[in-house]
TrEMBL record, chain A:
This is Electron transfer flavoprotein subunit beta. SUPFAM superfamilies: Adenine nucleotide alpha hydrolases-like (SSF52402). Belongs to the ETF beta-subunit/FixA family. Keywords: Electron transport, Transport. Residues 23-209 form the Electron transfer flavoprotein alpha/beta-subunit N-terminal domain. The lineage of its organism: Bacteria, Pseudomonadati, Bacteroidota, Cytophagia, Cytophagales.
TrEMBL record, chain B:
Transmembrane segments: none annotated. Belongs to the ETF alpha-subunit/FixB family. PANTHER family: ELECTRON TRANSFER FLAVOPROTEIN ALPHA, ELECTRON TRANSFER FLAVOPROTEIN SUBUNIT ALPHA, MITOCHONDRIAL. Pfam families: ETF, ETF_alpha. This is Electron transfer flavoprotein subunit alpha/FixB family protein. It comes from the Bacteria. SUPFAM superfamilies: Adenine nucleotide alpha hydrolases-like, DHS-like NAD/FAD-binding domain. Gene3D superfamilies: HUPs, TPP-binding domain. Residues 3-188 form the Electron transfer flavoprotein alpha/beta-subunit N-terminal domain. Keywords: Electron transport, Transport.
Length: 245, 322
């Protein structure tokens, strides 16, 4: 089985979010970048499936040169090779077009990625790639087993889950608990240095909905503390001041 | 011309978030002069429910009453909505952000060559360009995205608009859609859904517990408080990781993102990953015995005290008041 995992390069979840250049750019000062947490689940499951069924696992990222350490980390975790599509990921449509092109070229049976990136939270790329390639797409997938050409999945729905079956090839946007995150070991880190990482140019520059300006939410006022022996005061405040009861 | 709204329903009832999407579309149509709001519902829905979509601002409901569409088969739903979009001559599709809605809309973005923005928090600016404000970084910031295509898709975040209830009412028309076998290439074999409880992603009030609750056996007081408030229950990531509560109750960065009117956090310290899941709440109450808990900085109201004392008292006080 040929598996493709698409990786985002995103600020660590504890990062302070700030913008520069008149609120038109993300401020990377002091920010540590990681593999998107949902992509990390997808990668972990992909490594397990590759080990079970044999075949190959390719990691792909749409990003400029600074994303290479993130892509190398996915090689250290277990991907066999990597592709970096050399461009800033301008919007979901732009990214989906690139992935669809290289996925078609590579003839992958299974394409996994996170349910959404944790920077833009769009959650659209898997569905777009699916439609571009004429493959079924599923998200958010929390369980995925491959039996021959049949894929059995559990998809999270509001307040529960649905179990479904489909045939390869397909695309899934993943989330926990599809697999446990894998921490690269020393051998993985060493071998990642020499695994192939191919840099290719984007196939299209087309965009549909680029973000042009950013804004932080207004600062929160100070908390109003209520004495623990006077909880009825809290009820009054919620009713009369916050008007949420 | 018209604005099309994709409606979701569960157990025959239209979801409140879908009614919000209709309200959003109604305000949008008034702003852009796009004419009437047409809703599309797929599968079995109660007839009075469809008419109620009119109160939220739709003038027509297209109902594809095909049992094969009762399950949320993503490809089939996308095909059906694409056909309706063409037949009513819509340029804009509005829907509520949800597990199914996102999956269906992403495919539609390609089918309709439509620029799509998700997590939309307010009506777009449409004089000179088409600028859509959206929530990003899991609620920690906003971006303005410019849609440059003629067709557009907006996935609206919960609480982005007030629910409209004074619409004139809608006519219901049967819609027949052509679906092929490839639309049903996936098969839903079974569904597990928590019943009789308030669903967390859609709840107006949420009561969550953290490790400070000390064990799953103490969740009774969280549930009692939730019951008095008609609230859904949630939990922090460590709590679902150790199996005290099911995964679908995990609120946070990698769990459910909630946007209720009132969020009550009990025994949760307020790690930044948890805050990412709740920062769209209108009002946050924190109960924690540690006055240094970071959650107090993100709260509107707080009580420093032992949850085991404070929560039962709060439940009693609410019973007396509500």
């Amino acid at each position: 089985m040929k598996i493709l995992v698409c990786i985002t390069h995103v600020p660590d979840t504890t990062s302070k979010i700030q913008f520069t250049a008149d609120n038109t750019k993300f401020d990377t000062t002091g920010v540590q970048f990681i593999i998107g947490p949902y992509d990390d689940y997808a990668l972990a499951r992909a490594v397990e499936l590759r080990d079970q069924t044999g075949g190959t696992l390719t990691a792909l990222n749409v990003g400029e040169a600074e994303t290479e350490p993130t892509l190398r980390k996915s090689l250290a975790i277990g991907a066999d090779d990597a592709i970096r599509i050399n461009s800033f990921p301008k919007d979901s449509f732009f990214v989906a077009k690139q992935i669809a092109h290289y996925a078609k070229e590579g003839g992958y049976d299974l394409i996994l990625m996170g349910r959404e990136s944790i920077d833009f939270n769009g959650g659209m790329v898997h569905g777009m790639v699916g439609e571009l390639l004429g493959m079924p797409s599923f998200s958010p997938v929390m369980k995925l087993e491959v039996e021959g050409s049949t894929v059995k999945m559990a998809r999270e729905i509001e307040g529960g889950k649905e179990y479904l079956e489909a045939q390869l090839p397909l695309i899934a946007g993943c989330q926990e608990p599809i697999a446990e995150w894998k921490i690269p070991n020393m051998r993985g880190i060493m071998s990642a240095r020499t695994k192939p990482l191919k840099v290719v140019e984007p196939v299209s520059q087309e965009t549909q909905a680029e973000a042009t300006r950013f804004q932080l939410p207004p600062a929160k006022g100070a908390v109003k503390l209520v004495d623990k022996d006077n909880v009825s005061e809290l009820v009054k405040l919620l009713k009369n001041e916050a008007k949420v009861l | 011309m018209s604005v099309l709204v994709y409606i979701e329903h569960a157990d025959g009832k239209v979801k409140k978030t879908s009614l919000e999407a209709v309200s959003f579309a109604s305000a949008l149509a008034a702003q852009t002069g796009e004419g009437e709001v047409v809703a599309i519902a797929l599968g079995t829905v109660d007839s009075p429910e469809l008419a109620s979509v009119g109160k939220a601002g739709a003038s027509k409901v297209l109902h594809a009453d095909d049992v094969r569409l009762n399950d949320g088969v993503i490809q089939a739903h996308a095909s059906a909505v694409a056909q309706a979009f063409a037949s009513v001559g819509a340029k804009t599709l509005v829907l509520a952000k949800s597990s199914l809605g996102d999956a269906v809309a992403a495919r539609l973005a390609i089918k309709l060559s439509a620029g799509m923005v998700s997590n939309v928090v307010e009506l777009p600016k449409t004089s000179g360009g088409y600028l859509v404000k959206r929530s990003i970084y899991t609620g920690k910031a906003f971006a303005e995205s410019e849609i440059t295509t003629e067709n557009k898709i907006l996935a609206v975040k919960k609480n982005a608009v007030d629910l409209k209830t004074d619409g004139a009412g809608a006519s219901v028309e049967k819609l027949s859609v052509a679906l092929s076998d490839s639309d049903f290439a996936s098969k839903i074999t079974s569904t597990e859904r928590a019943t009789g409880e308030v669903l967390l992603p859609e709840a107006d009030i949420v009561v969550s517990g953290g490790r400070g609750m000390k064990g799953p056996e103490n969740w009774g007081m969280i549930e009692d408080l939730a019951r008095v408030l008609g609230a859904a229950t949630g939990c922090s990531k460590p709590v679902s990781d150790i199996g005290w509560r099911p995964h679908h109750e995990h609120v946070g960065q990698t769990g459910v993102k909630v946007a209720p009117s009132l969020y009550i956090a009990i025994g949760i310290s307020g790690a930044i990953q948890h805050l990412a899941g709740v920062n769209s709440s209108k009002c946050i109450v924190v109960i924690n015995k540690d006055p240094e808990a970071p959650f107090f900085k993100a709260a509107d109201y707080g009580i420093v005290g032992d949850a085991f004392e404070v929560v039962p008292k709060l439940t009693e006080a609410l019973k007396a008041e509500l």
